[in-house]
Design brief:
Shape: globular
CATH topology: Proton glutamate symport protein
Strand content: under 5%
Bound molecules: aspartic acid
Distance between the termini: 27 Å
Structural class: mainly alpha
Helix content: over 70%
Low-confidence stretches: none
Largest sheet: none
Radius of gyration: 21 Å
């Protein structure tokens, strides 16, 4: 397991820094097109490779994990703790975001002129995709949707909650039938699980190159002028994210687990780096699972349940970002939000973040739901598109860290 430990971490970090440097050079010397055409595909190939293993990994490891859980009550307990942790940390994340945005008022100083300029700079990318986000199904639909009518379709379409549901049912039932019937099935999936983990290791040796390619493309694309105007807003989001990680996760680990806070942050670093460069908690999932099991000592049973679920529904970074962004956009449009409206933001951002897929830019799409809930103009999304990618990278790191912290806390509470 040295692969995911320090040696690889250092290489990935070097890849990241070299990517930043290369991207800046490409922007300055005018060879950004070369980076987009020839370097970026290397990064995309890396992302596709790790995404490739997500579904078989989730299914096989979850099935193997639950089949050895012969106590269904224990399973219910793990599920309840996981959900409670995810919900509480998400609410805290939004509150931190709202607090900072109200105190620091990042949108208050923007002139009418700057606002028009920002909207125009990203105008064509705005609004269109967000209309679809608003046609969200009801809570009943969402819950019903967790049950697949056709498990094969769930696999083909990559519907993570349905896959989790089917894997859990299969795993539980394997534990309920005679062992001479269940053993061959479990053995088979244990084999599949090992193969996939081997695959993750091999793919991870490419991580430094993938990260280099992804980051250089982001940096080469970055409009520094837009960043400058939005610097205050970006800093408020980033400060919120840092506070959330430093306070909430550190305290949770310290109070509710037997692990040292330092060990936790050191163990989860490889996953954070991949989340940062891929801006996707789903694509990072195989690495998060590996880090949780091998570096943080989380039992497979818990990691294989809590982490895929977290990568699908637990998005603290996204929720915090949505809180700050809503207040920011409202401030730019000169709207004063009442206490009731802020409460609405908390409620809708919890739901929006749960509905956000763990893929790049998913959070900015579901932001439309939050804006709409309190009548902030959707065009406001165009204001923040200039810095979207970099904030996406940062919030994905927090999303992944939150999932892992939950796995560690739940694992510790079960090991008494
Ligand atoms: N990219 C984020 C993630 O995968 C989701 C978002 O867009 O906020 O975790």
């Amino acid at each position: 397991m040295k692969l995911l430990k320090l040696q690889l971490y250092t290489k990935v970090l070097i890849g990241l820094l070299a990517g930043v440097l290369f991207g800046v050079l490409a922007g300055q010397l005018g060879f950004s097109d070369f980076v987009f055409s020839y370097i970026k595909p290397i990064g995309l190939a890396f992302i596709k490779l790790i995404s490739m293993v997500v579904i078989p990994l989730v299914f096989a490891s979850l099935l193997v994990g639950t089949s050895s859980l012969n106590d269904i009550r224990k399973f219910g307990r793990i599920g309840a703790k996981t959900m409670a942790y995810y919900l509480c940390t998400t609410v805290i994340a939004i509150c931190i975001g709202l607090l900072l945005a109200n105190m620091l008022r990042p949108g208050a100083g923007l002139s009418e002129q700057t606002r028009t300029k920002l909207i125009q700079s990203r105008g064509e990318e705005s609004v269109a995709p967000f209309d679809t986000a608003l046609k969200k199904p009801t809570i009943t639909d969402i819950l019903l949707n967790i049950i697949p009518t056709n498990p094969i379709r769930a696999f083909v379409e990559g519907r993570m909650l349905q896959i989790i549901f089917f894997a859990l049912m299969t795993g539980i039932c394997l534990g309920l039938i005679p062992s001479e019937r269940s053993r061959p099935v479990i053995d088979f999936f244990e084999g599949v699980n090992d193969v996939i983990i081997k695959m993750v290791h091999i793919i991870m040796t490419l991580a430094p190159y993938g990260v280099f390619a992804l980051i250089s493309a982001v940096v080469a694309d970055f409009g520094l002028d837009v960043l400058f105007v939005l610097i205050k807003y970006s800093l408020v989001v980033i400060a919120g994210l840092v506070l959330h990680v430093a306070i909430v996760y550190s305290l949770a680990i310290k109070i509710f687990s037997k692990q040292k806070v330092r060990t936790f942050f050191r163990g989860i670093r490889p996953a954070q780096l991949i989340a940062f460069s891929s801006a996707s908690s789903s694509a990072t999932l195989p690495v998060t699972m590996e880090c949780a099991e091998k570096n943080l000592g989380v039992p497979g049973q818990i990691a294989s349940f809590a982490l895929p679920l977290g990568a699908t529904i637990n998005m603290d970074g996204t929720a915090l970002y949505q809180g700050v962004s809503t207040v920011f956009i409202a401030q730019v449009y000169g709207m004063n939000l009442t206490g009731m409206e802020q409460l609405t933001i908390v409620l809708t951002a919890v739901l929006a973040s749960i509905g956000t897929a763990g893929t790049p830019a998913a959070g900015v799409i579901t932001l439309a739901i939050v804006l709409k809930s309190i009548g902030v103009p959707l065009e406001g999304i165009a204001l923040i598109m200039g810095v979207e990618r970099i904030l996406d990278m940062c919030r994905s790191v927090v999303n992944v860290t939150g999932d892992a912290s939950c796995a560690v806390v739940v694992a510790s509470s079960e090991s008494k």
